[in-house]
């Protein structure tokens, strides 16, 4: 590693990669422009350290912006170094990790910097779905630079110093930063959903390493496996109590009970993240109606309905999994759509996007109905009819058009309470039970909750060689 590794930007690379594995590329590059006295200023590496190394033995490419060089601003050569890194990454099929700490465009280089920055966008778009792209934000990421994490797959933000914005908080009508810091990690993780993980610098670097170890290196790589040290037939007796907080349920199902959740603070009614099953990485999507804290106390509750934010969060995640050939597991507990005036403006499109993501995905897809599965909201959550390869259901789950009592009230609107209760019980047995769905072939197997892990592992092993084609076309439009 070159002497530039002594900067904060270099130290972040050292912390991220395996020890002594980093090889720098372009250490001698400096600014080419001489306008506005730029030639009188030192610009070592033109403000960005680029190169490659390994994380847990897997090749990755890294760029880290150096805020001590012209505030880390992006000039022509700075951008070209990042573009060159992307070209190498796509040739060799390895992830790109960007460590961002930048004041924005370099004004002295004007259109040269602007053009080169556009080339970064173009490379990110070309790399999307080819190699994983990860952004870590440690300082400022503003203006046009804020588009870059939006073009990558996962974004990590340092919780105190990182700032992510297109327009600064003080530039927003009726706002200033003390009212609402729209650039903060808290806002970007809870409100915009752009930040997947937040924490201290050490924490997010450790989380980036963990994520890289779970992901394939590229869309053709199927070697993202480790030896499973957990019991494949492990019984999970506590699982039946976790239908509400499915983040806990996914942890219990996972090898060694390890679950990597992304966007945990955004749209908490939907859980997405990665687990390993029999050593293989699986993407998970689950409805959630309860949140328990570290002390085991119920902290939040939600209706088990689909929200706009939840659909968007899940759809983006499923599309990523499909692009990189990662199987998808869903835990379904949903009775409808969120019914508010605000939600109604966007829920149809959001639900369509999630339906499209599941139906369009050709990877192995397994669904577990752990609670209610009613109406078109269930169809949106990876049902048999929309493409799930295997559907399992817990014995007490309900699958149908709607709640049995509500259906009875509609069908027998003028009847007395006794009749409605009688017809509701009949409807529940004939039309809304897991058994009735299984008799019609909409559920493959009814399983006991504690046996879920072994059934899911077996299903994904059976589906390992799945191949499924779609009609020939350029791309869909949803």
From TrEMBL:
Keywords, ordered alphabetically: Transferase
Pfam families, per database record: Carboxyl_trans
Keyword Transferase annotated: yes
Gene Ontology MF term list: transferase activity
Residue span(s) of domain CoA carboxyltransferase C-terminal: 231-462
Record carries keyword Transferase: yes
Superkingdom of this protein's organism: Bacteria
InterPro entries: AccD/PCCB, AcCoA_carboxyl_beta, ClpP/crotonase-like_dom_sf, COA_CT_C, COA_CT_N
Residue span, CoA carboxyltransferase N-terminal domain: 1-234
Annotated protein name in UniProt: Carboxyl transferase
Protein's organism: Blautia stercoris
């Amino acid at each position: 590693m070159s002497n530039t590794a002594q900067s904060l930007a270099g130290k972040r690379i050292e912390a991220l990669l395996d020890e002594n594995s980093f090889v720098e590329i372009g250490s001698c590059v400096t600014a080419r422009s001489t306008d506005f006295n730029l030639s009188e200023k030192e610009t070592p590496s033109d403000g960005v350290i680029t190169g490659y190394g390994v994380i847990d033995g897997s090749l990755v490419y890294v760029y880290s912006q150096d805020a001590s060089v012209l505030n880390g601003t992006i000039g022509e050569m700075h951008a070209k170094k990042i573009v060159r890194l992307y070209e190498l990454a796509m040739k060799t099929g390895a992830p790109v990790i960007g460590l961002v700490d930048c004041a924005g465009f370099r004004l002295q280089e004007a259109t040269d910097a602007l053009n080169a920055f556009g080339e970064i966008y173009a490379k990110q778009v070309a790399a999307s779905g080819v190699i994983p792209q990860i952004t870590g934000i440690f300082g400022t990421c503003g203006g046009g630079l804020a588009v870059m994490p939006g073009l990558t797959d996962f974004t990590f933000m340092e919780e105190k110093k990182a700032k992510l914005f297109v327009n600064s908080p003080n530039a927003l009508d009726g706002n200033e930063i003390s009212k609402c810091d729209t650039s903060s990690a808290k806002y970007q993780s809870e409100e915009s959903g752009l930040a997947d993980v937040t924490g201290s610098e050490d924490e997010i670097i450790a989380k980036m390493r963990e994520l890289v170890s779970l992901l394939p290196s590229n869309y053709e790589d199927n070697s993202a496996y480790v030896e499973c040290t957990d019991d494949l037939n492990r019984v999970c007796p506590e699982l039946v109590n976790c239908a509400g907080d499915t983040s806990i349920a996914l942890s219990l199902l996972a090898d060694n009970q390890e679950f990597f959740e992304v966007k945990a603070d955004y749209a908490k009614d939907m859980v997405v993240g990665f687990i390993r099953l029999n050593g293989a990485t699986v993407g998970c999507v689950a409805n959630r109606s309860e949140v328990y804290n570290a002390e085991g106390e119920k902290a939040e509750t939600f209706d088990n309905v689909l929200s706009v934010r939840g659909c968007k969060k899940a759809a983006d995640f499923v599309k990523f999994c499909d692009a990189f050939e990662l199987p998808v597991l869903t835990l379904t507990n949903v009775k409808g759509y969120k019914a508010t005036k605000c939600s109604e403006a966007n829920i149809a499109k959001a639900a369509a996007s999630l339906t499209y993501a599941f139906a369009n995905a050709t990877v192995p897809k397994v669904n577990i109905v752990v609670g209610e599965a009613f109406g078109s909201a269930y169809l949106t959550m990876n049902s048999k009819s929309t493409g799930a390869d295997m559907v399992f259901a817990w014995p007490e789950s309900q699958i149908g058009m709607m709640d049995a009592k509500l259906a009875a009230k509609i069908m027998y609107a003028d009847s007395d309470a006794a009749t409605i209760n009688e017809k509701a019980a009949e409807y529940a047995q004939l039309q809304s039970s897991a058994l009735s769905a299984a008799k019609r072939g909409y559920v493959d197997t009814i399983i006991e909750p504690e046996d879920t892990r072994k059934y899911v592992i077996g299903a994904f092993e059976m589906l390992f060689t799945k191949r499924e084609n779609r009609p020939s076309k350029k791309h869909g439009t949803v």
